[in-house]
Amino acid sequence: MSEVSHTSQTQIISHNALDRAVLATAQSTIPNAQAELSYAQSASSEHRKRYGQFFTPPRLAALMADWIAEANPSYLIDPALGTGILTRAALARCPETKVVAYELDRAILSNADLGDPERVEVRCENFLYSPFEPCDAITMNPPYIRHRELTGHEEARSRVSVRAGFEIPRSANLYVYFVVKACVQLNRGGRGAFLIPTEWMNANFSASFKKFLLSDGGLSQLVMFSGCSNIFQDALTTASILLVEKKK
Ligand SMILES: C[S@@+](CC[C@H](N)C(=O)[O-])C[C@H]1O[C@@H](n2cnc3c(N)ncnc32)[C@H](O)[C@@H]1O
């Protein structure tokens, strides 16, 4: 397989090309991951699993910040803040940007490192029930929770589906809800960088989700990591990064 391939609108980069051509050229400085390391050591694994608390590796945060920075955003949303690595990376790369960050778990917020707290408004609430506020950029690593483990999400699924004009399948993982809502909120010309597992490419909800990403979602580039890449230090999961640019 060639390392870089193209569909009509979307560039796909395999992990081999990524390692050499993308991560190596990331412009952002690699964010310090001390807050993530110390939280991971102190929180129980049950707590972290319940909220889907696995952290973005610094090099990927830098890559995502570079994509976002090219849109020169004034207003950026981080819908699943955690300890803040994506917000820190974006702030370091975008000196004029203000961030609104959502986090459901109050406990993790006391461990967050926001880099430049003056420029960040933290909302301790559920992003999926937040207003569909238009914004210039969204960077996120949303929680990954399988549909069988989801409880009380039917209202959120319906709310986001109606607004997106796209029926989120019942079998979809929670991260799909986040991606769809984020795509709805992006202004025209706005950019999103979303770190999610690769499962969406072959799951039984794939066909409609792919169609959404390529039309309304504005998927522009897709960075794929192979199953054998050790992307996360503390979780066995696959990884892909959706780089979105809203065209309409
Ligand atoms: C996968 S972690 C990512 C954390 C951080 N952004 C990063 O990239 O390392 C997802 C975070 O979202 C939070 N979260 C889970 N459900 C949420 C919701 N409905 N609204 C807002 N935050 C949520 C979790 O507590 C967790 O901290």
- In the predicted model, the low-confidence regions spanning at least 5 consecutive residues are none
How many helices? Answer: 9
| 3D shape | globular
Q: Tell me, rounded to a whole number, the average pLDDT.
A: 88
Q: Could you state the CATH homologous superfamily? A: Vaccinia Virus protein VP39
Bound small-molecule species: S-adenosylmethionine
Tell me what portion of residues adopts beta-strand conformation: 15-25%
CATH architecture: 3-Layer(aba) Sandwich
CATH fold call: Rossmann fold
The total tally of domains equals 1
Strand tally? 9
Spell out the helices and strands N to C.
Answer: EEHHHHEHEHEEHHEHEE
Helix content range? 25-40%
**What is the SS-derived class?**
alpha/beta
Radius of gyration, taken over Cα atoms and rounded to an integer in Å: 17 Å
N-C termini distance: 32 Å
What's the arrangement of strands in the largest beta sheet? 1-2-8-9-7-6-3-4-5
Q: Profile the largest sheet.
A: 9 strands, mixed
- Oligomerization state of this entry? single chain
CATH class group: Alpha Beta
What report would you give on this structure?
This protein is an alpha/beta fold and 248 residues long. The protein has one domain (4-202, 212-245): 3-Layer(aba) Sandwich (Rossmann fold), CATH 3.40.50.150. It has nine helices and nine strands. A nine-stranded mixed sheet has the order 1-2-8-9-7-6-3-4-5. Helix 7 packs parallel to helix 8. The chain is globular and about 40 Å long. It starts with a strand and ends with a strand. The mean pLDDT is 88. Bound molecules: S-adenosylmethionine (SAM).
